[in-house]
Amino acid sequence: MNTQALADMTSVNPFTHEQLNSYARFDLRQLDTLLLKTSAAQTLWQTSAISDRAGLLRSMAIALRKQQRALATLATLEMGKTLASALAEVEKCAAVCDYYAEHGPAMIKDEAVVATDGVERFVSYQAIGIVLAIMPWNFPFWQVFRCLVPALMAGNAVVLKHASNVPGCALAIESLCRDAGIPEHLMRTLLVGGSEASPLIEHPLVNAVSFTGSTEAGRKIAACAGQSLKKCVLELGGSDAYLILEDADIDLAVEKCVTSRLLNNGQSCIAAKRFLVHNHVYGEFAEKFAAAFRAQRLGDPMLADTDIGPLARPDLAHDLARQVSESVRLGAVLVCGGLIIPAAERDAFYPPTVLGEVRPGMPAFDEELFGPVAALVRVRSESEAIALANQSVFGLGAGVFTRDIARGRTIAAERLQAGNCVVNDFVKSDPRLPFGGIKASGFGRELSHFGLREFTNIKSVVVSP
Questions:
Q1: What is 4-236+441-463's CATH superfamily?
Q2: Start-end ranges of CATH 3.40.605.10 in the chain?
Q3: How do 272-278 and 373-379 pair as beta strands?
């Protein structure tokens, strides 16, 4: 292994292009020693009182709120999200700590099975060991905390391999755990690249894997975990479809859909991406939707009046430009925004863009658009809208806008193929509800009691007199 290569993980501000910091990479030759310490810490942790774990999660929430602005600033500098968005993200991390501190103990309490024969039967939830969290850059704190917090509550340890462009955030999370009183070695950050993930997954002391990222990377993670017979939870890409039916409240639909599409500079797996609009309201929706996009202010993500900051890396802007250009070549209409590939190779900005008359076979329909680009699809009936919504390899989220709540409820609950569906709103993760996808959007669930129990040994116990 090249020693020089180990000393070179840097973070770069996507707005100014300036190098923020340089960090020494973790030397995998030290992995055995580190994981032995983590395993020892986890063995003690799983025997700790549930109330003590809850107390430390409350301390974590306090530490997050105390350091909120510093953490948010770090996220903005490393990956370009607006400061307002980053502040909200840190608060959401604190809220998930509060949620599991309050409700987590009941979620892992033994569940008795009613017996009439004098034999005691119950289900016990035991920690599984060390969970490897392989996390993306787009929500550098929230993606980690929605795995970390329930894993710790269940008695597990967590080893984090974060995205290479947010090393400062990765190390800040470990430091935050220490500040909150989490036992040393129970949560560790390893600064390694994506190509070095396999040795982590395969290590005998790692018991499970949680991964959020692209579908392509998810397949590799799942194959590696499967070869080692280790459970994994995958939250992968998405091309969420939102149905705008002929009876929709158009102003409400525009407000919610614009917010969802442009959240986090458009870089969210669960952002609304394909808008299936009934022909009767297509013109009104497209006009108001595009007007809202044109009103977005691009600029310095640290400034309060900035709506859209840069994408996290210049190559992401180039990829988005390619998808838009190819879709227009195949017949999509450029309603507003840009086709032009950024002139400067290092330019990470891409303008909010609306494509009209999008159809299957175009990148804007078939692929995930990970940036501020919306695809409007004209439909002529509810059934066509549902069919096109489901005509996707992805199945993370979906929504429907209609004034007929019973109609919307039936479509969301029974007819849309996705793990998270909403009526007259946009999809967002909520600690009270399980979160995850189907098809190429992954499997397994995070959050709620489902997410907490994903990384437990759900054990049946029978005690005969």
A1: Aldehyde Dehydrogenase; Chain A, domain 1 (3.40.605.10)
A2: 4-236+441-463
A3: parallel
Examine the pLDDT at 6 and tell me if it is beyond 60.
no
Q: What does the DSSP assignment read for 271-330?
A: SEEEEEEEHHHHHHHHHHHHHHHHTPPBS-TTSTT-SB---SSHHHHHHHHHHHHHHHHT
Short-list 301, 363, 371, 304, CA closest to 337: 371
Residue in 276, 305, 259 with CA at minimum distance from that of residue 364: 276
235 is an active site residue? yes
**Cβ burial, residue 220 (10 Å; 0-12/13-18/19+):** middle
CA 143 to chain CA centroid, nearest Å: 5
Please name the amino acid found at residue 448: S
Structure tokens at 36: 């032995």
d(CA 154, CA 107): 9
- pLDDT per residue as tens digits for the range 283-302: 999 999 999 999 999 999 99
- Cα distances from 195 to residues 164, 168, 192, 217, 230, in angstroms, run 11, 20, 8, 10, 19
Q: Record the pTM.
A: 0.96
Give the whole-number percent of the chain exceeding pLDDT 70: 97
In this structure, what token pair is assigned to residue 133?
Answer: 């969290």
Domain with CATH 3.40.309.10 in the chain: 240-430
Catalytic residue among 257, 269, 336, 421: 269
What are the counts of helices (DSSP H) followed by strands (DSSP E) for the chain? Answer: 15, 20
For 277, residues 6+ apart whose C-beta sits below 8 A from its C-beta are 244, 285, 286, 376, 377, 378, 379
Structure-block tokens of residue 152: 């710790």
Distance CA 366, CA 322 (A): 14
CATH of domain 240-430: 3.40.309.10
The residue type of 423 is: V
Collapsed DSSP state (helix, strand, coil) of residue 111: strand
pLDDT digits (tens, 9 = 90+) for 421-455: 999 999 999 999 999 999 999 999 999 999 999 99
Take residue 178 and report the two structure tokens written for it. 């220490």
Task: Please state the separation of Cα 174 from the chain's center in Å.
Answer: 19
| Catalytic position from the list 89, 147, 169, 235 | 235
